[in-house]
Amino acid sequence: MKLLQILVKSLISSVIIVDVITLPAFAHNGMDHEHHEHQHTAKPQTRLAVRKDVTDLSSAEKKDLVHAIKTLKTTIPAGSQLSIYDQFIAIHLGATRLIHNHHGHSHSSVKELAHENAAFLPWHRQYIRRFEQALQTVNPKVSLPYWDSTNPKALDVIFKDDFLSPNGRGVTINIPGRGSFTGGPVQSGPFSSANGWVLKPELNFDPVTEQSLGTSLVRFLQAPPANDYPLPQRDIDRVQALDDYSLYRAALEGFISVDEQGNITRGGFTHNYIHGLVGGVQIDLTTNPVSFKGLGTMSNIPSSPYDPVFWLHHANVDRLWAEWQANGHEGIDFYPADGQPYGHNLDDLMWPWDGGMSTPEATALADLLSLLPDVDAQDLVRPRDVLDYTKLGYIYDRHQMKEVPEPTSTFALCSLTALAAISLRKRKQQQIKYRQL
Question: Taking every annotated instance into account, which residue ranges of this chain make up the domain Tyrosinase copper-binding (predicted)?
């Protein structure tokens, strides 16, 4: 069983994400982008949106969020085939399912632009902020809440008829050694098909067979083996204690973890696992390599933003990164300047906010090309531009901060110097362990 848990923790390795549309309210990321290299001047922010723990939302705040999400789903911009919400899905698909050529660079045909590499965190930070800005065009008071996956109360708040709808029903699966479990299409609440939450089949398909997965939001919440909840705080704490960005990103995304002795191991109770917890996953141990099959919308990563819980989950991932940054990992020293696939280095432009630098190649998914929204040619975003999230116009309600000495004495200054030296040594040791996996 422990093997199953380790395997499921590393199940989702092809996530997709999308960004925005050419609408004035969120055509830019809260910053002025000029054609001068690396010059990005922050616009004055009149008010920072505060992202709250979902369990702290009032009834009115939950209703406002649901209304804003559903309004985006039914609003089709002039000249588009897709609603605003569906455009976010299309970009997410484009970031993971299309091959991109990068003009003027030796790095070509990069398929995964939003996952499995360094830009997983900055790309999603930009992506969910664009979505939040879209919500605020409906209601300026709305901000994205986050789902703290260590909070035991969260499931009972999120998966209810008065908020993001409950688990699916109507399909029973038999899991050897574990019994029968029920899930399927969501049949009640605001995100059921009966209440207007209809997925576009051309944007909701199996990433392997490319067959449509239908028009309903599907959940197999807590079906084994992805059934452990809440996530252990000690596991999250060990991830947050990593000092090297490359290791930290891989751990937070869910491909590695840190054991009690500080050793790097495979799999983890983080981002990937939560996708499987909500959507459900089947594992076949008889194949080589071991095969994973997503059962529901959240575990079908390319179109996983069709489940509205996606945004709460990724707000939490971003919150953890923001907390890690605030605890001694701020700025460009804690992001790779080079050595990554194009689109993932510090000063690479990230698709689709790259002024046309990345051109999607026509593939078997050629029909998707016609659905991708246009992005302003001056809407340019690099990982560097989003390292300071407060410049994007939001903050979190609280962070877990480490205790460090105040730099007001010789002892304190020496202590901070020692902490920096220890941090550097730890990063080097962790990198060596990771390479040995």
Answer: 307-318
